[in-house]
Specification:
CATH superfamily of one domain: ANL, N-terminal domain
Strand order of the largest sheet: 11-12-13-14-15
CATH class of one domain: Alpha Beta
Pfam families: AMP-binding
Protein name: AMP-binding protein
Number of helices: 15
Oligomer: single chain
Shape: globular
Radius of gyration: 23 Å
Number of strands: 25
Organism: Streptomyces ardesiacus
Helix content: 25-40%
Largest sheet: 5 strands, mixed
Strand content: 15-25%
Structural class: alpha/beta
InterPro entries: AMP-bd_C_sf (IPR045851), AMP-binding_CS (IPR020845), AMP-dep_synth/lig_dom (IPR000873), ANL_N_sf (IPR042099), ATP-dep_AMP-bd_enzyme (IPR050237)
Length: 497
C-alpha cells in the first residue's frame, strides 16, 4: 500500500464525509482528494521528480494535509519541519535533506532564506496556483508509478546530539505501521479525532493516516489557544484525543473548571512519556466510560506496543502488546534473549521497522541490525524493559535514565511516577546523579521541597529517594510536550554556579 492509497480509499468509500478541519474551515474527503491531486500537478510543473525532497515548514492546517498526500502521489519525499525549529538547527536539517523545493509562510521564509540558496515558495502564492489547477477542466494527469519501498517521508527527530536526525519512512513501512495501529485502536467513521500535535512529529503525522483508515474526521487544533481547547472539543464533538502527559493534565484541569462542558470522548491515547496514575484517574473522572490507552514507540518503527483499549484497566504499568505482525525481544548486553521478567534492551522486529537514518550510515548500523537467524531488520531502541509471561511489555526507561545509586539499580521513570502520585504535584522530572550532583527531582507544585521528599519516602525504597527537591513554576518541555531534561539540568547547574 502507498500513503496516498489511504486517502484514495476513503474518497472512493465516503467522498462526502468530513475529512479534516482546522479553525478556518473543513473539507470532505472528496475535496481533500482534489486538492492533493492539484498539488501533485503543481509539483510536476515545478520540475520536481520522484525521490526529490520537498521541505515544508508550515503550521499544521488542512493545506498541509493536502500537500502531504499530493507529495506522496507524485513519488516525492515529504519533509515536514516544525515552524518552531530554531535557525541553529534549521541550517543542518535543510543541508541534510538536500531539497529540490522549499515551501514556507512569510514568518518562516526569512529564516529559511538564511540557510538555503533555493527560492522559498510562499504558501499563499503556492495555494493560489493549486486552487487554479483544481479548477481546471479536462482529464487528470496520469498517476506516478511509485514503488512501495520508495521513501514517502523524512521525519527529523532530536536525539542525544545537537543536530536532529531524519528517520526514513518508506511507503510500505509507514502504511503497515498505520494499519497495524488501526487494527488495535479501531478508529471509526463516526469518530472525531482532536489532534493538538504538528505533522512534523510522527504522532501528529500518523493521526492523518489513522483518521483516513478509519474514515474519521480529523480536527487540527495546534493553533488553538490553551483556554479554548475544551470549548473546541465540545463544538466539534470530539471522541478521540491523542495526548502527552502535559496536555492530559491541561484538559482535566479545564474540565474541573467547567464540568458542564464535556465532549463525548470515548478514547484517549498517550505517548511521549507514561501517564501518571493520578492523571489517568482524572481522565476517567472527566470523561465517563473513556478508555485511556497506553502506548510505547519510537519514530524509528512508529509504534512498538499498545494496550488494547478494552484492557485499559488491566496490567497497570504495562505499555501493552506488540503490534500485530511484529515482535518484541528483550536482549542482554551480548545480544542474548532474556526470559520473561528480566530487564534488558527493548528490540523491535517486523515490517514496521524503518530502514534507517537519512544519510547517516554509521548511526544506522548501530541502531538497525539484522536478525542472526532470519536476516530481518530489527530496531535496537536504547530503551529498557521486560516482558511478562503473557507477552505484555513494561517500559523501565532509556539507557540514560537507568542508573545505580547506593548499589541499587533504578530509573528516573519510577521516581517521576512516584512524585506524580503525590496530591498537589502537577508535573515532575527526575535528574540522575552526575559527577558533582546527587539524584534530584524537580516538581511543579505548591508543596514545599520537604513535603515532596517526605511523601516520596513513603512511596520509594530509601535508596531511591532523591537527596534534593526543587519546586519550580514550570518545567521545560519540548515543542511536542515531552520533558526537556537536559535543559532543566543546565538551568539548575547555572543557578548553582
Amino acid at each position: 500500500m502507498l500513503v496516498h492509497d489511504i486517502l484514495d480509499g476513503a474518497v472512493a468509500e465516503c467522498p462526502d464525509a468530513r475529512a479534516v478541519q482546522d479553525r478556518s474551515g473543513a473539507w470532505s474527503y472528496a475535496r481533500l482528494g482534489e486538492y492533493s491531486q492539484a498539488f501533485t500537478r503543481w509539483l510536476r510543473r515545478q520540475g520536481v521528480e520522484a525521490g526529490d525532497r520537498v521541505v515544508v515548514r508550515l503550521p499544521t492546517t488542512r493545506e498541509l494535509v493536502a500537500l502531504f498526500y499530493g507529495t506522496s502521489r507524485h513519488g516525492a519525499v515529504f519533509v515536514p519541519l516544525n515552524p518552531e525549529m530554531k535557525t541553529f538547527q534549521l541550517g543542518s536539517v535543510v543541508e541534510s535533506a538536500d531539497p529540490a523545493l522549499v515551501i514556507s509562510d512569510a514568518a518562516g521564509a526569512v529564516a529559511l532564506s538564511e540557510v538555503t540558496s533555493l527560492p522559498v515558495h510562499d504558501i499563499g502564492t503556492v495555494w493560489a496556483e493549486v486552487e487554479a489547477l483544481r479548477a481546471e477542466d479536462g482529464p487528470g494527469e496520469p498517476a506516478a508509478q511509485v514503488a512501495e519501498d520508495a521513501l514517502a517521508v523524512l521525519i527529523y527527530t532530536s536525539g542525544s546530539t545537537s543536530a536532529p536526525k531524519a528517520v526514513m519512512g518508506p511507503h510500505a513501512q509507514v502504511t503497515f505501521a498505520a494499519s497495524a495501529i488501526q487494527a488495535v485502536l479501531g478508529y471509526r467513521h463516526d469518530d472525531v479525532v482532536f489532534c493538538r500535535f504538528p505533522m512534523s512529529w510522527d504522532y501528529g503525522l500518523y493521526k492523518v493516516l489513522l483518521s483516513g483508515l478509519g474514515r474519521s474526521e480529523l480536527v487540527l487544533a495546534g493553533e488553538e489557544s490553551d483556554l479554548m481547547l475544551l470549548r473546541r472539543m465540545c463544538e466539534t464533538g470530539t471522541t478521540v484525543v491523542p495526548v502527552v502527559p502535559s496536555l492530559a493534565s491541561m484538559i482535566t484541569t479545564l474540565v474541573r473548571r467547567d464540568p458542564g462542558s464535556v465532549p463525548p470522548v470515548r478514547m484517549v491515547t498517550n505517548t511521549g512519556a507514561a501517564l501518571p496514575r493520578a492523571t489517568i484517574e482524572a481522565l476517567r473522572a472527566a470523561f465517563p466510560g473513556v478508555r485511556v490507552v497506553r502506548q510505547f514507540g519510537q519514530t524509528e518503527c512508529k509504534r512498538v506496543s499498545i494496550v488494547p483499549p478494552e484492557e485499559d484497566r488491566d496490567k497497570p504499568g504495562s505499555v501493552g502488546l506488540p503490534l500485530p505482525g511484529t515482535e518484541v525481544l528483550i536482549l542482554d548486553a551480548e545480544g542474548n534473549r532474556l526470559p520473561a521478567g528480566e530487564t534488558g534492551e527493548i528490540v523491535a522486529v517486523g515490517p514496521h521497522v524503518m530502514p534507517g537514518y537519512w544519510r547517516a550510515p554509521e548511526l544506522t548500523a548501530r541502531t538497525f541490525r539484522r536478525e542472526p537467524e532470519t536476516g530481518a531488520l530489527r530496531l535496537h531502541t536504547g530503551d529498557y524493559g521486560r516482558l511478562d509471561d503473557e507477552g505484555y511489555l513494561y517500559f523501565e526507561g532509556r539507557r540514560d535514565d537507568i542508573f545505580k545509586r547506593k548499589g541499587v539499580r533504578m530509573s528516573t521513570v519510577e521516581i517521576e511516577a512516584a512524585a506524580m502520585d503525590i496530591p498537589g504535584v502537577r508535573a515532575a522530572t527526575a535528574l540522575p546523579p552526575s559527577d558533582d550532583t546527587d539524584l534530584s527531582v524537580c516538581v511543579e507544585s505548591d508543596l514545599t521541597p520537604q513535603q515532596v521528599l517526605r511523601e516520596l519516602s513513603r512511596r520509594l525504597e530509601p535508596q531511591k529517594v532523591p537527596s534534593v527537591c526543587h519546586v519550580v513554576d514550570e518545567l521545560p518541555l519540548t515543542v511536542h510536550g515531552k520533558q526537556e531534561r537536559r535543559e532543566l539540568a543546565r538551568t539548575l547547574a547555572g543557578a548553582r554556579r
